[in-house]
Amino acid sequence: MVGVRSGAKVILRKARKGEGPALALLYHRSVRALAAGCYDSDQIEAWAATTTPERAENWIATDEVIVAVQDSRLAGFASLSHSNQTLALLYVDPDFADQGLGRRLARGIERKARAAGIQKLSLRASVNALGFYHRMGYHEHETVIHAIGGTQFRCVLMSKRLGPRPARRSAPVGQGVVR
Length: 179
Description:
The protein has helices at residues 20-34, 41-48, 53-62, 101-115, 130-135, and strands at 10-14, 64-70, 73-81, 86-92, 120-126, 139-148, 151-161.
């Protein structure tokens, strides 16, 4: 596993036009590796086939997409759909899984949603991501069957109330600004 190196800086930034092929490749790697314990091979391949480089470019053009980059390598991405008020996508490269990157991406999207005045963020979670979203404070509403072609998947509709923007922490006593 390559993964996040100890001390290596991971940068979150806005996705750039032309990064669609890299997003699509990461999406395919993530689905095939991280959903394997929850869905069968036909479901995984149907899911992975839904994304092309062109579709990923469209995400960049229409949604607010952030990427996580370490040492010039794309490690994950997430997107906010303002029109639907949803955390529409969140995928982490398998080499970076279970290292806190998904949490950083989700928090980044939540900050952007709060800044846009979105008070409740919704999502459709795959079964393999339920534990992650529970730990992030999302609540289940309904189990649904999502179909891609003739292939069906169990997913869960979830949401989280974002509340007001967190207040900035004040300086500890004795470390404030001297007037």
